[in-house]
C-alpha cells in the first residue's frame, strides 16, 4: 500500500470544493500539486493576516517548537502569558481564555454570559443574536447563528438565542425580557455577506445593554486582529463591549482563538473553561509574533491605505459594470453585484492560466475579499485588473 497516494474523495469536510490540492504558500501566493500558482484573496478565510508562511511565524514555530511544545494545561507557559498581556493592553479587557477555534471561543462567551446571568441576573440566560449572523459550527454556536435553515436541520437547537435584525435597535429592544443576559453580534457580519453593524447601532446596543443591565458581546473572530484597519473593529464605533472573542487572524494560520472579558464579568471558576490545548505555547508563541507584526508602527495605517485602494478599485468596477457598490472596512470588503455572477466569477478566476485567482462568493451577487493584511499595492492592482477581465468575459 502506498500511503503517499491520496484520493480527494476520502476527505469530507464543511463544503464541497473543487479538486484542488495546495502544497505550498508564500505571502499572497499559493501553489497547487501541479505547480500552478494562485493569487490568494481568501487567505485561509481571513486567517493568514501576514500571508502564507510568514517568516516571523516560522521563526516563532521553530524557536518555540525546539524549546517547549506542550507543558500541561495545568501550568502557565510564557508565550500564553505574553500574548494575554498584549491582548489586554491593546483592548478594554482584563481577562483572557485561550481556545483553539472561533466556535470554541464563542462557546466560552456563551457559557460565561450564562454563568454571569446565574450569578448576577437571577438565572437569566437568553442571548439575543442577529439574523444572518455566523458564530460557528458547534451545536450552541449554530443555535446562536442566524443562518437560514440551521434551526431545523440540527434541531433541537440549544435554547435561548432569540434573533433580532441587524441595525434595527427596536427589534433588539422588543426581545429583551427578564431572561435576557446579553446581546451578541459581529461588528461586520462576515459569512452573512460583509454587512457592517452601523456605529449608531453598536452605540445604541451599548446604551440598551447598560439600561437593562445586560452584557454586550462582540464576535471579532473575523473582524479582529487588524482585519478592518484597527486592531479590533469595536474601536471604530467608540464602544466598550463586555466580552469579545477572537480567532482567525490571532494565530495568523495556526489554530488559536481567545475569549476576552472584563474582570468583573469573568465569573468562571477553575475548571469551568479551558481544554487540553488551550494556551498551548506553540500556538501562542506564533500569536505573539503575529501580534507584534500587527502592532508594529505603521502596519495598521498600511492596512487602511490598502483598504482604501481596494475600496476605490471595487467602486470603479461597480460603476463601470452598473453594479451596486462595495462595502466593508479595511481589508474585509465585498463587491455587491447587480446579478448572481459570484459563483461563475469564482470558478473562472480559479481556472485562469497560467496563474489563478482565489476569490469567495458568500452569496450569488457578492464577492468577498480578504487578502493578507500585508498584501501589496501591486497585488491589489493585479487582482482588480484580473477581475475586470473575468467580468468582461462573462458579460
Ligand atoms: N465567528 C465568526 C464571525 C466567524 O466568521 C467564524 C468563522 N467563519 C467563526 C465564528 C467560527 O470560527 P471557527 O471556524 O474558527 O470555529
From TrEMBL:
One of its GO terms (biological process) is L-arginine biosynthetic process. Keywords: Amino-acid biosynthesis, Aminotransferase, Arginine biosynthesis, Cytoplasm, Pyridoxal phosphate, Transferase. The keyword Amino-acid biosynthesis applies. The gene is argD. It is found in: Cytoplasm. Pathway: Amino-acid biosynthesis; L-arginine biosynthesis; N(2)-acetyl-L-ornithine from L-glutamate: step 4/4; Amine and polyamine biosynthesis; ectoine biosynthesis; L-ectoine from L-aspartate 4-semialdehyde: step 1/3. Pyridoxal 5'-phosphate binds at residues 102-103, 134, 219-222, 276. N(2)-acetyl-L-ornithine binds at residue 137. This is Acetylornithine aminotransferase. Its cofactor is pyridoxal 5'-phosphate.
